[in-house]
């Protein structure tokens, strides 16, 4: 039997496949898969006409999406696989599912126009997620860029675009044409260049004197959400939309600060020349005298 030289790269890949994966890397992925199951279940519930439960499934998916990344960073379980899985789950939960739910609920009455609006919402969510994945790998981003999203994030877009359904469950009639225009507007916000506050600048630590108030507020919010879901979601959506200009204003302040810092070295380089020039002008009349 002839001697064959072992490929070191192939041997290394085999070792990587046989190496056990730590549990801390699995936990965030399990949460992401649970969120994906919630989004898919929301689509099924919409087909069955149980719209209230369908919206609850989307809200539950958004809550899981808000914690899976934080848990991954907390237990040091981040991975490239988890990031890609999270993006795919977000596309289904916050692009495909809300579009289908709105179409089944009201947009189907507009025929092809309603279906086009549902597709545009899903496509814009996918484009927004793809752009986000590209931007986080940009090495030239300023350090403060992490405080902002470019365009409305997909989870917030999904919760926001369902506002006509919240209002409908409160007893107010929303024409299908208004729902279509509103859906297209939210889709445009997701792919826009509008800076949106990410909430990361609030911080991950709470001062000791605010621990109890934060717990009370969180419990109160959950109680109100369970007891009056459509009121809370409607008011929260309106407040969120009203706060969007704050992100643009804050982003402008950061850009102005960077511009001032960039202009400072140029001004510092000019400072030594100015006294020298003034000294020469001061000495010139003395020589003439």
CATH topology of the largest domain, by name, is Four Helix Bundle (Hemerythrin (Met), subunit A)
Structural class: mainly alpha
Total of DSSP H or I helical runs spanning 4+ residues: 12
- What's the count of strands? 2
List the helices and strands in order.
HHHHHEHHHEHHHH
Strand order of the largest sheet: 1-2
**Cα-based radius of gyration, to the nearest Å:** 27 Å
Shape: globular
User: Per CATH, which architecture of the largest domain?
Assistant: Up-down Bundle
Given as residue ranges, the uncertain stretches (5+ residues, pLDDT < 50) are 278-289
Please outline the major beta sheet: 2 strands, antiparallel
Q: Beta-strand level of the residues, as a percent range?
A: under 5%
| The top level CATH class name of the largest domain | Mainly Alpha
How much helix is in the residues? over 70%
Straight-line N-to-C gap: 105 Å
Mean pLDDT, rounded to whole units? Answer: 82
CATH superfamily of the largest domain: CDP-alcohol phosphotransferase transmembrane (TM) domain
Number of domains: 2
């Amino acid at each position: 039997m002839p001697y064959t030289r072992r490929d070191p790269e192939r041997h290394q890949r085999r070792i990587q496949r046989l190496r056990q994966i730590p549990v801390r890397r699995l936990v965030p992925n399990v949460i992401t898969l649970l969120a994906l199951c919630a989004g898919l279940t929301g689509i099924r519930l919409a087909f069955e006409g149980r719209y209230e439960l369908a919206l609850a499934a989307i809200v539950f998916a958004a809550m899981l999406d808000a914690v899976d990344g934080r848990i991954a960073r907390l237990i040091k379980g981040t991975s490239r696989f988890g990031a890609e899985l999270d993006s795919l789950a977000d596309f289904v939960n916050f692009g495909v599912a809300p579009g289908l739910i709105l179409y089944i609920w009201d947009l189907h009455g507009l025929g092809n126009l309603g279906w086009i609006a549902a597709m545009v919402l899903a496509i814009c969510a996918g484009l927004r997620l793809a752009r986000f994945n590209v931007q986080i790998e940009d090495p030239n981003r300023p350090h403060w860029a992490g405080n902002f999203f470019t365009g409305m994030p997909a989870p917030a877009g999904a919760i926001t675009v369902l506002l006509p359904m919240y209002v409908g469950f409160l007893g107010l009639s929303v024409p299908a044409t208004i729902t279509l225009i509103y859906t297209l507007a939210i889709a445009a916000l997701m792919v826009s260049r509008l800076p949106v506050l990410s909430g990361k600048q609030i911080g991950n630590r709470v001062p000791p004197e605010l621990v109890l108030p934060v717990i009370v507020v969180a419990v109160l919010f959950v109680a109100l959400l369970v007891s009056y879901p459509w009121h809370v979601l409607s008011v929260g959506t309106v407040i969120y939309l009203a706060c969007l200009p704050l992100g643009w204003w804050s982003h402008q302040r950061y850009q102005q600060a960077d511009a001032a810092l960039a202009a400072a070295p140029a001004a510092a380089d000019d400072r030594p020349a100015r006294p020298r020039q003034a000294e020469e002008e001061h000495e010139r009349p003395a020589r003439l005298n």
